[in-house]
Amino acid sequence: MSGGLYSQVQKAEDFFRLQAKNDSLLVENANLLQTILNYRLSVANNSFQEFELSQDDSLVQYRLIPTNVCAKTIHLRNNSLTLSKGSNHGIKKGMGVISEKGVVGIIKAVTPNYSTVLMILNSQSRISSKILNKNYHGNLIWESSDPRLMKLLDVPKHATIASGDTVVTSGYSVSFPPLVPIGVISKVELLEGSNSFDIQVLLNYDLSQTEKVYVVEMKTAYEKEKILSAQ
């Protein structure tokens, strides 16, 4: 009897040790991804040498809060995630949520210990995106029933684009840094009488497999949001 009890206790201890190891790895990944995002921004601003030499976080514009997904829907018209962290951990409504592979969604509601994410696979989602290495941007939306196919709106018909072009975040909003991966253009059409292309985007990743994510905190979000709302 005592041997059986010891076995059960041992399994529980092994589980918690594994969980602690996974949590530690999640934090390490968050720090690495955070460095990459901020380095990209410093390169775009021609301040990468300052960023490399800086010994403090004065040039860190984005901080990532690692967390686990504790509930989700994926095959509805309006899908969402529930995260196991909330306002007690610095999460606020409107923050972007990413994975190691790309964009996941935007924080919609927050409690002290939980938060919900309006996924990009949601009829209400609008993600400011751009075509990499080209000066064309638009809003990414989800209109199909396929969780891998998105649509990019508002790209003018004079734009030089083609299937295979890469789509990333624009960095124009306060939710996401620039250049977070989204997908590639899989189809381009110009509808009769339209001034913009009908662009289909194939996601680079499978959101149904998402279990660990990173909430994006922008240091100057309040200041940027204030100036944007005044325009």
How does this model look, in words?
The chain has helices at residues 2-44, 48-53, 221-229, and strands at 62-72, 78-83, 96-98, 103-110, 115-122, 127-131, 137-141, 149-153, 166-169, 181-189, 198-203, 212-218. With 231 residues, the chain is of the alpha+beta class. It has a domain at 127-205: Rod shape-determining protein MreC, domain 2 (Thrombin, subunit H, Beta Barrel). The strands form 2 sheets. It has a 6-stranded antiparallel barrel. Strands 6-7-8-11-10-9 form a 6-stranded antiparallel barrel. β10 (181-189) and β11 (198-203) form a beta hairpin. It is globular and about 50 Å long. The N and C termini lie far apart (72 Å). Residues 46-53 have low confidence and may be disordered.
Short description:
It is built from three helices and twelve strands; from the N terminus they run ααββββββββββββα. It is an alpha+beta fold and 231 residues long.
